[in-house]
Amino acid sequence: MIFANGLFAMAELAVVSSRRSKLRQRAEAGDGGAKAAYELASSPSSLLSTVSVAITMIAILSGAMGGAVLAKPLAAKLESISIPVSVADPLALGLVVLVITAVSIIFGELLPKRLALAHSETIASRLARPIQAVARGMGPVVQLFTWVTDALAALFGVRTTGETTPVSDEELRHLLEQGKRAGVFSSTEQGMVERVLRLDELRVEELMTPSVRIVWINADDA
Q: Which portions of the chain are predicted below pLDDT 70?
């Protein structure tokens, strides 16, 4: 179950952090997994809902099975070394919860997400199809939870529009700066885009050349 949790967490972060341009290039080259990943990245709502429901269910089952399967045998071992039952049972349960939590965090969250960030497009392409299959199978459950969530949110005056927040000029400049540091854009390209972003702030006079700076050529000299 921890392994399954890790796969869902890895798939979610890999798809979300992948560059859609790279996924599209792979899809155009015939990579079916990249095509599926591109579809998920273009409309991530079903992915996020499916992963949230799946991870929550896995966490509940892991806790229930851990307490039932591991805690009782451990409590019996503790009782065999003369630890009172009143102490052995809660101690065993606490130890099991501690171990399951540590293993889940490392192998179910941190390590998979580290791998997803390091190889986002590759992992997204490999896991997209299985995630799509799970999303189709869990579709009715996800739709039910989504409907209930929207209904409860409406009670607080929150309406789901499905519209994404547009990227601001400052966010675009920040992305350009990151791209320049990574070697994706040159300083010249960054400057060109920044000048385009400032066009609406310029006056026509600022774009015009003063007549005293114009170099005239006599047509008869040609």
A: 67, 160-167, 206-207, 221-222
CA dist., res. 34 & res. 28, Å (int): 9
Q: How many CB atoms lie within 10 A of CB 175?
A: 14
Rg of the Cα trace of the chain? 28
Q: Which pLDDT value is given to residue 199?
A: 74
Can you state the angle between helices 2-17 and 85-105, rounded to 10 degrees?
A: 30
Q: What does pTM read for this prediction? A: 0.64
Helix, strand and coil content of the chain, in percent to the nearest 5, comes to 80, 0, 20
Q: What is the pLDDT of residue 10?
A: 92
- Which helix (H) or strand (E) segment is 144 a member of? helix 139-155
The string of DSSP letters for 47-90 reads HHHHHHHHHHHHHHHHHHHIIIIIIHHHHHHHHHTT--HHHHHH
Burial class (CB in 10 A: 0-12, 13-18, 19+), 15: buried
Q: What is the pLDDT of residue 167?
A: 64
Sign of the torsion formed by the C-alpha atoms of 109, 111, 112 and 117: positive
Question: For 210, phi and psi rounded to 5 degrees?
Answer: -55, 145
- How far from 206 is each of 115, 199, 200, 201, 209, CA to CA, in Å? 50, 10, 12, 10, 8
Q: What is the pLDDT of residues 64-75, one digit of tens each?
A: 777 677 888 888
At residue 114, the pLDDT reads 93
